[in-house]
Amino acid sequence: MAFEAGGSMDAEAREVRALEAEIAALQRRCQELPAPGEKPSGVRYVVPVHPSGSPIRKSCQKLPQSDSEGWESSKDLRSHLGHLKSELSFLSTLTGFNIRNYSKKIEAVTNTEVTEEGTTKVLQRHRLSGNCNMVTFQLEFQVLEIQTKEKLSSAITDLNIIMEPTEYSELSEFACRAEERRDLLMFFQSLHFFVEWYEYRKHTFKHFKEKYPDTVHLPEGACSHCMEIHSTSRPGFELVVVWRIQINEEGKVSPKLDLLTKVPQRALVLDKNRVIETAPSSFQTLLGVLGIEAALDSLIKLLCVGNN
Amino acid sequence: MEPVNTLCQDGESEGGVLAHLEKLEVQMSRSHKKSEELPRVQRDENVLRTKIHELRHLRDKLRAEVKRRQARVKACSANVETNQTAEISEQQVLEKQKENVKAILQAYRFTGLSGKLTSRGVCVCISTAFEGNLLDSFFVDLVMEKPPWIHHHSIPVFIPLEKIAAAYLQSDLQRFLFSLCEYVNAYSGRKYQADRLQSDFEALLTVPLQRNSLCNLLSFTYKVDGRDQSFSFSARLLYEDLTATLPTDVTVTYQGMEASTHWEEHRASHEILFRTKPLHQVFASFSKEVEKLDLSLVS
Lengths: 308, 299
Known about the structure:
The complex is a heterodimer. By secondary structure, chain A is an alpha+beta fold. In chain A, 42% of the residues lie in helices and 25% in strands. In chain A, β4 (135-147) and β5 (152-164) form a beta hairpin. In chain A, α6 (275-290) runs antiparallel to α7. The longest helix of chain A is centred in the N-terminal third of the chain and has 31 residues, at 2-32. Chain B contains eight helices and eight strands; from the N terminus they run αααββββααββββααα. Chain B starts with 5 loop residues before the first helix and ends with a helix. Classes of the chains: A alpha+beta, B alpha+beta. At the A-B interface, α1, α2, β1, β5 and α4 of A face α2, α3, β1, β2 and α5 of B. Chain B: Belongs to the CENP-O/MCM21 family.
């Protein structure tokens, strides 16, 4: 019993001593730091405290030298930056590409590989992201630069493209092709033309919707890829213009318009001249002769005639 | 015992803590005296336990106080440091932003169109490439007046620059640039293919490559080794679409005298190949087994 009591008393006594020591250290610390009523004097380094309570006499933040040699003054920097920003803004408007982020890394691995005959190879990793109108892109690509005695050649050795939105199947197919060929330039050029056609389609459909609000319907809203023409006097008669934007193997962008007809069975029977049957091909001819806007306009007027 | 709050509120907090400790010591000696009546061991145990309890309490308070004061110091000194180093860190920030914008401007060359503002307008740089191979750059120095005009440029003379400018320069600058890009880039691509043919497949050409400066009319004679014999073909490639890197018109003719049953198949398949694949890649495929190639393409 006495042994146990003595043992527990020793433990407690130890704890008391430990607590007293800690309290003493904390009191010293308290004395060093200014009380809430005081103002801290001048600039002070924040001094970290060792768990034992003794301060580590080492400043944790070094103030940079305030000599301005080799640094532009803030004012010059600001105006220089302003100029660069306006250049960027101009370029962005001019090209239609808005590059928001870009970083480049020289690969440390096969950095400068000096091979026979003094050829050097440098591998660069690039990361680029931005948008072209409603399409946002994120690119990662590698460029291999080979410098021989005669010339310097650069080639893209790897290309990864992430594009949003993903619902344009033509775009995602096209992105895959560009990746396969590592054809970054074709990606950008075709993207530009795709977006141009996209905007033109949107604008054209909107125009017709406004001009003939009762006849024209855009099932998917402004960004619809098809336009329905309803005959209000003869419900059941409908023409649908499907307008796709295609990108071919070489990256050439072109519109592809097709006409679909929706007509009641009885009307088909009455159509001796097979006008409805031949409508889609007639439409192609019309497109070739009048161009897109005029062809669509005449088509809508055709059904509108019945409306008056 | 003084309440905790006073530690923060009045300036005598330090005094408060020390006074508290004094009080504690007094209390302890009092309780020590009090507990003298109890059996010595139990008395000591009680005393210790109480003391531990009190000490822990005090320690926690001190810890909290130290934390509070440290945080205050940090906040104050951060403010002071900020003021002192405000100018320098602003420079750092601006410098970083500047480098960032510069880098993005450089990155534009990957889109094919980049440029620099000039005193009178902009100098646009058109970068060309073919299937990932970065090729020559050309520039067009534009004066941005109403209407804009071309001050000088490095576009080759056989590119129809005047025609493109007449069509778009005054009305739609973006269209002008992208259209010009198409022509220049396609020329660069055709030139690259022709150069590669000449450099990589010289051995296969029995009559050297003939080309015009626009690289849209090429003619050459080449030999291909078939299963039993070798064929000699003459090819004429015409690229009517100047914005394309594949020919619109391909004529392959057989150059031999001997009657042969196989040459027609090869000839026809070669025509298709030249029309659908880049020139140097077609020749690269010739080095592989010819048979497999032909049969799969003719069908």
